[in-house]
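Sample 3 of the quickstart, ligand nicotinamide-adenine-dinucleotide:
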Amino acid sequence: MVGPDAARAPYHQIPGPTDRCNPRMEPIRVSLSEGREYSIHQRPLGDLPALLRANRLDVGKCLVVTDLNVGTLYEEVLTHALMLEGWSVETVTVPAGETSKTSRYLQEIYDVALRWGVDRQTIVVALGGGVVGDLGGYAAATLLRGLPLVQAPTSLLAQVDSAIGGKTGINHESGKNLIGAFHQPRLVCADPATLKTLPHREWIGGLSEIVKHGLIDDRGFFAWLQSQGEDLLEPKSESTPELISRSAAVKARIVSRDELEQGTRIFLNLGHTFAHAIENVSGYGTVSHGEAVHFGLRAALILSSERQPDQDFNPALDLLALLPSSKVPSGLDVEEVIAAMATDKKTVGGRLRLILLKRIGKPYVASDVSPQELAHAWQAALGA
Ligand SMILES: NC(=O)c1ccc[n+]([C@@H]2O[C@H](COP(=O)([O-])OP(=O)(O)OC[C@H]3O[C@@H](n4cnc5c(N)ncnc54)[C@H](O)[C@@H]3O)[C@@H](O)[C@H]2O)c1
Ligand SMILES: [Zn+2]
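Result:
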């Protein structure tokens, strides 16, 4: 399922083998409490052993967690580079897609890891999209009470968002991401060249999270995205590294201010209470996370504009409209989706807490949204 778009991807000029000569690809730092920090690098996967060395991760055992699509394409280049440096490598490959983010595949990782004989120094490398990052990350958080984690994201969504910030976990049939832990990676190695094989649908899904970053960031990222226009719609060797860099920097800044989501990190959930409900009701994997975020952002923007009639949210809706959105899953029942929102982790004391916007770049938490307002926003967002 590599996608027909892979062959025509205009990605032949990826600078390499290092990012030293390109200032746009400077590593981005995530600063945490007690002096902890790590960096997000845009580097070829084959550079990972050098990055491990630079981050004082000594040669030993490395457990690679990947999925079938990504493993077929990139496992060899990664494991070859690691083994050349003397690493001993074991790989767990799960099926691709959201349905692998479950206790069943977590157990599979535990089984392989423990039979192989992981020790406290074994590093876990999550090679893949957000599913593998969350699943492999949670395995790393819990095996032997915590193994060092390295994120090697290969989807756009993972490179700009999910691989950064330390949220790991799995889904439960009651809802998305309900079981999990904070476990920060020791480093993130995002190779933009891997995006050339990413299916177009997944590229567009990643753009939804990028637009989200534009909507909550007050430093002009939204204006930059607007200036890119239709250039955003496919990977481009000239602009994609900057797109990744700018978007990842928004996430890194927010996480650096509030690692454990006790305050402003919750703004990253703009559109997500809506999105998780769509994913849940339509059955995980039917609508991708990025696609669900697209609908969720639309609903959040419609609700925000109804509450702030003096503000113009049309530029945001227009930017979102640029992204070819997937079809609304047929038979989606608005009542059922609203009911599913109640299981969201952001609910406090049975009260929904939604992230809305005062204006573009200024998010806030709304705890007083009525069921009528919700139903209206949903209907408008889904075109129901
Ligand atoms: N931890 C966080 O902070 C956080 C943030 C946002 C999203 N998420 C989670 O991330 C997940 C979504 O991530 P995703 O959109 O990356 O989904 P995904 O991991 O399922 O990847 C999407 C698809 O693209 C394929 N793929 C990935 N990279 C590829 C490549 N380079 N070439 C070819 N195919 C490739 C995968 O095999 C999969 O089929 C959701 O579970 C979501 O909840 C987590
Ligand atoms: Zn998301």
